[in-house]
Amino acid sequence: MLKCGMSGSQVKVFGKAIQALSRISDELWLDPSEKGLALRSVNSCRSAYGCVLFSPVFFQHYQWSTSVKVNENDSTTSNLNCKLGMKSILPIFRCLNSLERNVEKCKIFTSSDLCKVVIQFFCRHGIRRTHNVCFQESQPLQVIFEKNMCSNMLIIQPRVLAEAVVLFTSSQEEVTLAVTPLSVCLKSSSDEPMDLTSSVYSEMFVGPDEFDFFQIGADTEITFCFKELKGMLTFSEATHAPIAIHFDFPGKPMALSIDDMLLEANFILATLADEPSRASSPPSLCLSQKQKRSDLMCSTNNNSKTGKNATSKAPGCILRKAAPKRLYPNETQTDIPALENCGSPIMKRVNEDISEVPESSVSNTEEGPGSSYLSFLACSLEQFLLTSDNTSTTLLTVWQQQVTVKRT
Amino acid sequence: MKFRAKIVDAACLNHFTRVSATIAKLAKTCTLRISPQKLNFIVSDKAASGGVSMWCELEQENFFSEFQMEGVSAENNAIYLELLSENLSRALKTAQNARALKIKLTNKHFPCLTVSIELLSVSSSSRIVTHDIPVKVIPRKLWKDLQEPTVPVSDVSIYLPVLKTMKSIVEKMKNISNHLIIEANLSGELNLKIETELVCVTTHFKDLGNPQSDIVRNKIIHFDLLHEDVSLQYFIPAFS
Fold first, then answer.
1. Which residue is closest to B113 within chain A, CA to CA?
2. By Cβ atoms counted within 10 A, which residue in A26, B30, B97, B98 is the most buried?
3. Do residues B92 and B194 share a domain?
4. Subunit structure of this entry (chain A) (predicted)?
């Protein structure tokens, strides 16, 4: 159960967070906990994840309690598990400037019994606006990403990044961040051969002294989705806080984060990997359901037990090399036999048999693209996760071209 | 073929940016003609642009502190490039507070006009921004279509009223009708008229001067804008 309240200016920041997350996907998870209220969003091809955590001190008042379900011999606490459609919630937080001016107080409350979130605006002149938004029960996905383990970290004022972003047209899909110990360059990225009608190639070099913090381990170039960067940028301009960029090598996800006393925002974006001749890479995105947070860890379990009646099926996800290189979801997800180029069959679908402890694993691919292509895993995983019940912890680990899905 | 030029003066840069923005509003694609003394933006008389054509001329020494070019050959010392006008305009707009702007013709997998900008930044280091604008080199055999149009002998020639006024009037009229009737005489009177089934609106301008010049058959309307170092001529074919 969630009950919180905020003032007009806080509503603006809250609304900006929702707008930034809307650039990632059409669904938003509202995830309250003792740490605060987290808003989470994952895109359909699992190449971008955003989470904005508002700490309890951000709000004027914040109350949260879990509901306890008595279930046979067990009593389990369950979280809110609230998933909202962006189409329902985004219009409520439109016109943020006028909301900031007119709203004196905003209350958001919900409980698990009624499947709805109530957002109330107490405006000037005694006007009260109430929105009841129905939600779907769904456990939020959470990404575990050790951003502090990244060898490269930059902290930059949002204004500088905004000045760079202005160079690119809105039709620019991907941008590349190229760093050396002496300079940082943001440039447009395009694979298609140039012709008269292709867009302008632009690049901007920024010197190290423009950054609040500059730590570069090795020369790197990473390519990621521009739209998601812009989303994060507009949010950071609202919070006036510097943006930290954590990244490693191509293929490993990058994190854009804002950390201040009142809130913590993390946008984890997948980056385009290099050509398949690369060696395999260490764990990248780790997705898990957030039942027991203390248990979450990435293990290097290499057991290769296959589940019974496992069927192999090419997941219908967009995967680099098989489809045009994209990090953003297509309008329609086409069933591409995405693993044609990968030599051996990768994923065996686990049978949904809850009485067992099924495990499935990925066989080694000698020359496969490496474990950084999590989109195909995630789609198959979704099927698997939907069948889980509230008492289980599901762990997905990716390591060295092997994938293990374990349910305890 | 070689071309490299540099602008260091803020006012010149601003002016050049505004000319480029104007061209971008008038035509989607245009031809840039580079010759030793001048720079021209040309939109030629093709059906695609609705029969409209435009010729804009800039004296290069009024803008560029450095200007070097080498045309196709010694006898044909010019370069004709086709590009999307929006691309150049947008690239120049990012050069708001630039210390210097360089333009050169390059060939990076494809011929490009590379605009290289050195920006002033808050800290001591400057930022370097580069834009590669794809262009198409127009072969010499097509140059004859891109020459300065001769101004035909005119019936009436008149100085236009304050452009801002005209602009606001024409913009309002645009909402009512797609066709505009322009009437002018040698007594300094100009009418802008729109006629629809329901309404007919006319704006009258009086006491405009008539320059001593030639007469044209009322087939083409020729707008000639003369401003300091830029001249822009715009031709619109008339319906009747």
1. A200
2. B30
3. no
4. Interacts with HUS1, HUS1B, RAD1, RAD9A and RAD17.
